[in-house]
């Protein structure tokens, strides 16, 4: 029974979920001649930056095309993304040729590298200066949900007694742990009556309430379904429907063969599902929801390989005017975080668009969002993949574990690659909306299944 594959140790995880408040850390200017922003970085999760166990296929000889012409898209990820250094197909080491050193570096690359190094150095010190999250005042469901309508809806949801969850998970034992989310772990369980569920045990009352408030309004096939919740003393848990095929991250970076590995058509369908889920949050959910932590490990796959957006503990209610507003802090995962959002600290839907673009690049190439090149240096997926796509050479970086695309699939993959590049444009205004993304992927999907 697996919602997603058993949680790896912190030694094998290289993605960091962070919150960056608007105050008190060494000053630096993230943009050339731009205003200096004061930042402080308490780490939410996980504990350390560590060596990543790479697990993906790679092409035989990949050299990044020379950037002789100005790219049509302005693409600069702020913080590194990733692919593994071992080929899971045969468990042999697989060399990944680093970016051509002869390509001239731009100020933006220097900025990105400087910021990443700054964060990395800060994170190394966190073990001795780890922030403590405390709640001096009890936060309850009644105090968090402000209106009578909200309270009625919450009360109508199924509230599970703590003892039932403890029994189903053998007191939240490691044997039942199947993954991690923001502020807590996820456990697989079978409740009385035979219902299979995934129980997300939250370590933060506020994160629990934020996610609960976001979830009980949602009703879409591409958003994770909340079965119920538990609030008992200092124990907080969310009970989700069980996802048989786990996370997109684990299915992309595993050895065993799955439908996701069998064709590009299957991957395009999953990409369309994800886009529809995010579009629902941005356009149809009331209130509008901005996820802020879209990544492959937050995309779940059910028994029919339908993708669902998961983990809303960093989500924010969208601005009333559907434009933007400033935040007290920046939150997200290194490698998927929008660089404009990091710098300006403004909440817009384009935050999720950027992250979706990284997810799409990961699905096409099987490189992880944050990975190391053959020299052991951290590298962003957009740095490595986008130049190939911009020069119409996407075939050189496609996941080699998937059978070669058919003529129709080849066009579809090229279109998906161009869409991903547009999504990771440096400026949010240059990125498409999620509705435009859905419409584009829908046209691609229709062509593929019709071809």
From TrEMBL:
GO molecular function, one term: protein kinase activity
Superkingdom as given in the UniProt entry: Eukaryota
Region (Disordered): 80-106
Composition skew (Polar residues), residue ranges: 83-106
Matching Pfam families: Pkinase
Location of the Protein kinase domain: 172-446
Keywords annotated in UniProt: ATP-binding, Nucleotide-binding
InterPro entries: Kinase-like_dom_sf, Prot_kinase_dom, Protein_kinase_ATP_BS
Residue positions binding ATP: 200
The protein, known as: Protein kinase domain-containing protein
